[in-house]
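We were asked to recover a plausible sequence for a given structure. The inputs and outputs are reproduced exactly as logged, with field labels preserved.

PROBLEM: sequence recovery
POSITIONS: 230
GIVEN STRUCTURE:
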């Protein structure tokens, strides 16, 4: 069995920590969290990780300073910094501190995943397939093209994100809240019913009638069943 890629998250916002941990564990990553810089340093001393997600504004230290300290200690793991600060000067400061990438809050989970995959590819830690196949559906995550029974279909970004998530996790039941967080972001403040709207649109575009690839789990959410498994 392939060993999980391990990610450390140093972030004090519990909403974001829960959002990241739940989503990354769904994707098969091993996740450890720390709410303070000092705690994160102790964890890094005693464990090996393949990637660090580091918040800029921590209660006990500046993320830029912590990032620089890690590089000065010779720590070479990829570092993705998170911040609410969107000024160009801040992004430059983060990269100059030794960060490999810089993502501004709020963010959509799929963008975070794409950045993580890119950083891990540079380290030779993963070989992510660009094509996902489920029955008659062929999806390319790089070109964002989707073929259904050989026919190209046009999906909105939200519909595309839902389909990727469903194909990657067949038979798994997703609550509306989980889908909402994953495709629209942890900061979305609207009704969870919007997920029902997007799922219905996706069903129509997939001609998902009697077969019911995307099945409603009443009172909970949705699950995806590839056609070949029916």
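RECOVERED SEQUENCE:
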């Amino acid at each position: 069995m392939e060993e999980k890629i391990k990610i450390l998250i140093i972030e004090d916002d519990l909403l974001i920590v829960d959002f990241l941990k739940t989503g990354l564990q769904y994707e098969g990553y091993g996740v450890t969290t720390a709410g303070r810089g000092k705690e994160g340093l102790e964890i890094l001393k005693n464990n090996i990780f393949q990637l660090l997600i580091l918040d800029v504004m921590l209660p006990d230290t500046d993320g830029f300073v912590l990032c620089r300290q890690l590089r000065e200690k010779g720590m070479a793991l990829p570092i993705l910094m998170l911040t609410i600060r969107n000024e160009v000067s801040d992004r430059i400061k983060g990269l100059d501190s030794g960060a490999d990438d810089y993502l501004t809050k709020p963010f959509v989970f799929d963008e975070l995943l794409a950045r993580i995959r890119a950083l891990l590819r540079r380290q030779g830690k993963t070989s992510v397939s660009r094509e996902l196949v489920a029955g008659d559906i062929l999806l390319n995550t790089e070109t964002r093209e989707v073929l259904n029974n050989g026919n190209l279909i046009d999906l909105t970004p939200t519909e595309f994100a839902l389909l990727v998530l469903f194909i990657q996790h067949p038979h798994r039941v997703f609550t509306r809240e989980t889908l909402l967080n994953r495709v629209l972001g942890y900061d979305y403040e609207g009704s969870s019913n919007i997920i029902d709207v997007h799922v219905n649109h996706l069903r129509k575009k997939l001609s998902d009638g009697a077969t019911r690839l995307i099945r409603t789990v009443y009172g909970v959410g949705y699950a995806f069943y590839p056609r070949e498994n029916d």
